[in-house]
Amino acid sequence: MLERIAATPAAVELIEELRAENGPLLFHQSGGCCDGSSPMCYPAREFRVGQRDVLLGQVAGTPVYIGAQQFELWEHTHLTLDVVPGRGGGFSLEAPKGVRFLTRSRVFTDEEYARLKQEPALHRGPPE
C-alpha cells in the first residue's frame, strides 16, 4: 500500500518520548476551529475516535486518524508529521514542551493517486 502518512526523525523522537511518559498514543488531524488543522496527540485511552474518522496509517507505532470532512479535502495529499518550536494546541500532549506537531503536505503525483484508487478503502471508525 502507498503510504499516506510519514514522520520526520524529530517527530518520531518526540512521539517516543511522549509514549514513554503517557503510554499508548494516537493522533487526530482535524479541520476544527479551536486548533485549526493542527495534528493533535492524545493518550489513546482519552480520545474517542468517531465513526467517520479515517485511519491514515501509523507513525512510530502510533495510529493517525483524520476527520472525514478533512480527509475529503486532503485525500490527494501525502502528510508528514513534523515538530517545530512554539506553542501549539493546548490539548495536545507536546504543548508543555515548547514545541508543536505540524503537518506538512505534498500532493500525490498522478501515478501515486491512480495507485491509491486501486487500493482497498481506508478503515473508518474506532479501532476494532
Task: Write up what this structure looks like.
The chain has a single domain (5-118), classed as HesB-like domain (Hypothetical Protein Aq_1857, Chain: A), CATH 2.60.300. 23% of the residues lie in helices and 33% in strands. The chain is built from three helices and seven strands; from the N terminus they run E-H-E-E-E-E-H-E-E-H. A four-stranded mixed β-sheet has the order 3-2-5-4. A hairpin with a 2-residue loop joins strand 4 (54-59) and strand 5 (62-66). The model has no long low-confidence stretch (mean pLDDT 90).
**How much of the sequence is in beta strands?**
25-35%
Strand order of the largest sheet: 3-2-5-4
CATH superfamily: HesB-like domain
- With helices defined by DSSP (H or I, 4 residues minimum), what is the helix count? 3
Which structural class matches the secondary elements?
A: alpha/beta
